[in-house]
């Protein structure tokens, strides 16, 4: 009898010690990223949601309730790249949506690439109508993942299968699609200039026929002369009586109250679509077409599809997360997710699909909203870093008349290295003096000289560590600005936004992390986990090599 028991335990050990067989591995890894989905937002409307969307995730998934980005600059490309690589921005290099190249003296948009232009004509950024200042800052319409340092999970999957795994990324935003598709996958994003999904010559020499067919259908035309209407009775909304708040962005032709008209085919028509849940609906429709056309999840080799939904971010910027628009967007996002899950179940089977849901960052509430509750908040005037007082201090300290600051590109102040060298000054000394002056400004919590971070001259606090994780020597500036909680810059090239993100405070770092499908058992986990854990966990789940810069810890509940 004892011998049989020992044999049984030996057999169980062998079964659980070896990697999943090809038959047991999921047919599809589906990574869903919702732009600016702060962790609490789905729960604010949870009791009013039907089955099938968010409720399916929270009731059937492994929900990590205490999940955070651990880097300081919580911007879109930074969070997407972290989820893709399992690395900190100091390693993957995407330190911000834009940075300043001190050699060329030009701003760099994160996924721009002069060597890989957009495929086709007219799909680039129209700077006359582009409301995303980071997109408008790009010096070329070419796009690729070339600036991402190291590998992503999807890259590792491609190499493990010798290129046989089908790998795609889809989003309204180019940086949302490109980062997660990695170097080895293919990415598509929405062109507001054409109202179509586009890609670059990095990925294709010509568009696949199914993409040409989807674009030829001109699905955006079905929204002509329609509006974004409330999904439910206004009386059922938490913010139903707050449809016209003074901090909301008054975008001409779109308004700040429901219904929000899309209007005719004007120069801002496609922009209006992305400022509403329609952007997510178009993304979903394109992704479903991709799944069908590319036979995603149809064989024994695990495929990978990333879908990044951007509407929550755009709505958050324009109206704020605590707004009637933000609330209605969550209801509609819930139905978009339900639609996606139903489709994936029909085509691949949820039991054959490992799904991970997260967000690139959270978001801050509008200062006006916070002040209702007695909380200090405000908008910071970035021109304050170039005031006469600061100039005077630098001139008196170093006896120079030259301007020593090149500019501010969130979150860094960049110094003019040529001017500093010409005057035989020490750049570290200049950065420390300027940092000390910046700390005196109202709305700035701290100004950290990169030299002090690298030399260990600052306290070993979680905030300072998060700033250090953001530092890349070839891309970061000389001073990192940390604004006070609920203080931020709201003027982006003349467009005033209601809210933003990009801070090291918890409202920007706290995001959902939910794994589901592929036989996983539902659970709620309350220990702290970090978004660098996601790519590492996916790699261990498939028993493949982790991305080159990954520093996360595998989540044991997913690997059980």
Name the descriptors.
22 helices; alpha/beta; 4-stranded antiparallel β-sheet
> How much of the polypeptide forms β-strand, as a percent range?
15-25%
Could you tell me how far the N terminus lies from the C terminus, measured between alpha carbons in angstroms?
29 Å
Number of strands: 23
Main β-sheet, spatial strand arrangement: 8-7-6-11-1-12-21-2-22
Biggest sheet character: 9 strands, mixed
Low-confidence stretches: 1-23
Give the proportion of residues in helices.
Answer: 25-40%
**CA radius of gyration:** 24 Å
Average pLDDT over all residues: 93
By DSSP (H or I, 4+ residues per run), the number of helices equals: 22
Class from secondary-structure proportions = alpha/beta
- Shape type: globular
Protein model, in words:
This protein has 22 helices and 23 strands. Strand 14 (405-409) and strand 15 form a beta hairpin. Helix 4 runs parallel beside helix 8. A 9-stranded mixed beta sheet has the order 8-7-6-11-1-12-21-2-22, sandwiched between helices. A 4-stranded antiparallel beta sheet has the order 14-15-17-16. A two-stranded parallel ribbon has the order 3-23. Helix content is 34%, strand content 16%. It starts with a helix and ends with a helix. The protein has 560 residues and is an alpha/beta fold.
């Amino acid at each position: 009898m004892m011998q049989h028991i020992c044999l049984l335990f030996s057999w169980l050990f062998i079964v659980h010690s070896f990697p999943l067989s090809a038959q047991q591995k999921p047919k599809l890894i589906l990574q869903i990223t919702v732009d600016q989905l702060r962790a609490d937002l789905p729960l604010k409307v949870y009791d009013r949601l039907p089955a099938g969307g968010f409720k399916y995730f929270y009731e059937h998934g492994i929900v990590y309730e205490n999940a955070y980005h651990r880097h300081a600059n919580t911007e879109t490309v930074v969070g997407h790249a972290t989820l893709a690589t399992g690395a900190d921005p100091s390693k993957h290099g995407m330190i911000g949506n834009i940075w300043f190249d001190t050699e060329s003296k030009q701003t760099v948009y994160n996924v721009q690439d002069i060597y890989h232009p957009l495929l086709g004509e007219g799909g680039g950024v129209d700077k006359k109508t582009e409301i995303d200042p980071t997109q408008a800052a790009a010096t070329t319409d070419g796009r690729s993942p070339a600036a991402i340092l190291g590998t992503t999970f999807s890259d590792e999957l491609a190499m493990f299968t010798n290129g046989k795994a089908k790998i795609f990324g889809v989003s309204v935003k180019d940086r949302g699609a490109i980062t997660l598709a990695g170097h080895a996958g293919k990415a598509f994003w929405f062109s507001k200039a054409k109202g179509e999904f586009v890609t670059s010559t990095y990925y294709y020499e010509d568009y696949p026929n199914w993409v040409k067919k989807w674009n030829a259908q001109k699905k955006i035309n079905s929204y002509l002369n329609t509006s974004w209407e409330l999904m439910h009775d206004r009386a059922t909304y938490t913010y139903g009586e707050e449809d016209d708040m003074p901090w909301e962005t008054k975008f001409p032709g779109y308004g700040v109250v429901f219904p929000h008209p899309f209007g005719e085919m004007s120069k801002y028509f496609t922009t209006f679509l992305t400022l509403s849940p329609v952007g997510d609906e178009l993304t979903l429709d394109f992704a479903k077409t991709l799944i069908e056309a590319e036979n995603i999840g149809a064989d024994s080799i695990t495929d990978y599809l990333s879908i990044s939904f951007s509407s929550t971010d755009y709505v958050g910027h324009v109206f704020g997360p605590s707004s009637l628009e933000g609330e209605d967007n969550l209801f509609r996002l819930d139905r978009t997710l339900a639609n996606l899950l139903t489709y994936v179940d029909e085509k691949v089977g949820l039991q054959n699909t490992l799904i991970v849901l997260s967000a690139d960052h959270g978001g801050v509430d509008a200062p006006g909203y916070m002040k209702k509750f007695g909380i200090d908040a405000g908008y910071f005037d970035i021109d304050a870093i170039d005031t006469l007082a600061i100039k005077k201090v630098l001139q008196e300290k170093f006896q120079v008349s030259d301007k020593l600051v090149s500019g501010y590109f969130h979150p860094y102040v960049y110094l003019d290295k040529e001017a500093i060298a010409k005057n035989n000054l020490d750049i570290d000394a200049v950065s420390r003096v300027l940092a000390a002056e910046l700390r005196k400004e109202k709305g700035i919590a701290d100004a950290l000289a990169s030299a002090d971070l690298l030399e260990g001259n600052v306290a070993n606090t979680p905030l300072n560590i998060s700033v250090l994780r953001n530092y890349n020597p070839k891309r970061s500036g000389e001073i990192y600005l940390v604004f006070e909680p609920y203080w931020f810059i709201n003027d982006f090239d003349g467009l005033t936004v209601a809210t933003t993100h990009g801070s090291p405070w918890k409202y920007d770092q706290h995001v959902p992390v939910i794994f589901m499908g592929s036989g996983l058992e539902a659970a709620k986990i309350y220990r702290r986990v970090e978004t660098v854990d996601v790519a590492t966990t996916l790699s261990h789940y498939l028993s493949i090599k982790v991305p080159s810069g990954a520093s996360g810890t595998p989540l044991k509940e997913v690997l059980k």
